[in-house]
């Protein structure tokens, strides 16, 4: 987003707000092509109840996302009805038994929308809907909307924008939705974590060789054990014990790649009391035993391995 300052307040604007309301459509010579492609993107405001789209009356093989900027809309998904107010958006795959429209008692509905197709577009959207349902709240998670807003402005400024650049932006937006689905407000970069959680991670990274308990981690965070576990999972997507295991396996992978120490020695130095348990954990997270990883069997040994939930 773009930030403007004035004496009495700070104003946050989406990039598209520097443009006018418009819409852009895209057609492609080939039927297949990119696995995620932009069909339409637009910024619109409707005020007539005649505005109504039905998911079983408009072709198929694509997904629609619509984010409410102002006013109010409605979505019917099967027998469920959803009110679409500011900071909410809906995601739907067409064809399907869905209908979105301006309700008769609403004055207007202003929104930013995108229509995409391609195998990745449909598959990713289907999975996000499975996890979160058709309606998503962005009140505290603005980045996915900001990505689409930036894309609208880019296309508005340059309607001939390269199709590969457009697809890259759509993937960025889609991954933002996956992050939202996976953990709502998960933060991946350690430096972005809240201070108490960052303190616990620092303890884990400095003392992963030791027998750390969740109580030790909560103490480093300055939180009660219950509150610490709840906040830690909310921010990282992992429990404290899982995160410690991730650190230990990543360090073990580095030692397997850069030292000649035995598996038993590496297990002990990475905080695993028993080598057999270390082998089991390593194989579960990496997909290969420590020996297979070291020799390049099943997976390629890399200089640095990152384990993600």
Output the keywords.
2 domains; Jelly Rolls; six-stranded antiparallel beta sheet; Arc Repressor Mutant, subunit A; 10 helices; alpha+beta; 309 residues
- Which CATH architecture of the largest domain? Sandwich
Which CATH class of the largest domain is shown? Mainly Beta
Spatial order of strands in the largest sheet: 3-4-11-6-9-12
Estimated helix fraction: 40-55%
Q: What's the shape?
A: elongated
In terms of structural class, how would the helical and strand content be classed?
A: alpha+beta
> What count of structural domains?
2
CATH topology annotation of the largest domain: Jelly Rolls
State mean pLDDT (0 to 100 scale). Answer: 86
Helix segment count?
10
Structure overview:
The chain has 309 residues and is an alpha+beta fold. It has 2 domains: 20-183, Regulatory protein AraC (Jelly Rolls, Sandwich); 190-295, Arc Repressor Mutant, subunit A. The chain contains 10 helices and 12 strands. The strands form 3 sheets. Strands 3-4-11-6-9-12 form a 6-stranded antiparallel β-sheet, with helices on one face. Strands 5-10-7-8 form a 4-stranded antiparallel β-sheet, with no helix packed on it. Strand 7 and strand 8 (80-84) form a beta hairpin. The chain starts with a strand and ends in a 14-residue tail after the last helix. The relative contact order is 0.10. Residues 198-296 form the HTH araC/xylS-type domain. It holds the Pfam family HTH_18. InterPro entries: AraC_XylS_family_regulators (IPR050204), HTH_AraC (IPR018060), HTH_AraC-typ_CS (IPR018062).
């Amino acid at each position: 987003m773009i930030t403007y300052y004035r004496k009495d307040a700070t104003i946050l604007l989406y990039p598209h707000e520097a443009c006018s309301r418009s819409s852009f459509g895209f057609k492609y010579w080939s039927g297949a092509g990119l696995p995620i492609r932009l069909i339409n993107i637009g910024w619109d405001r409707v005020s007539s109840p005649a505005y109504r789209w039905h998911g079983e009356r408009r072709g198929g093989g694509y997904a629609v996302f619509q984010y409410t900027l102002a006013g109010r809309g409605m979505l019917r998904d099967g027998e469920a009805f959803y009110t679409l107010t500011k900071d909410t958006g809906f995601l739907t795959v067409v064809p399907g038994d869905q209908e979105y429209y301006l309700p008769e008692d609403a004055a207007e509905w202003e929104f930013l929308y995108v229509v995409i197709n391609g195998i990745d577009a449909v598959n990713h959207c289907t999975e996000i809907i499975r996890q979160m349902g058709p309606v998503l709240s962005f009140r505290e998670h603005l980045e996915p909307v900001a990505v689409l807003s930036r894309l609208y402005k880019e296309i508005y400024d340059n309607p001939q924008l390269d199709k590969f650049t457009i697809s890259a932006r759509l993937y960025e937006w889609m991954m933002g939705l996956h992050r939202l689905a996976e953990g709502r407000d998960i933060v991946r970069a350690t430096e972005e974590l809240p201070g108490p959680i960052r303190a616990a991670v620092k303890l884990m990274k400095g003392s992963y060789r030791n027998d750390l308990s969740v109580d030790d981690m909560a103490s480093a965070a300055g939180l009660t054990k219950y509150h610490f576990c709840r906040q830690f999972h909310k921010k990282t997507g992992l429990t404290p014990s899982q995160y410690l295991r991730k650190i230990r396996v990543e360090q073990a992978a580095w030692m397997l790649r850069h030292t000649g120490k035995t598996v038993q020695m590496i297990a002990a130095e990475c905080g695993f009391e028993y080598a057999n348990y270390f082998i089991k954990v390593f194989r579960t997270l990496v997909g290969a035993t420590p020996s297979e990883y070291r020799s390049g069997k099943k997976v390629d040994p890399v200089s640095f391995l990152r384990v993600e939930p």
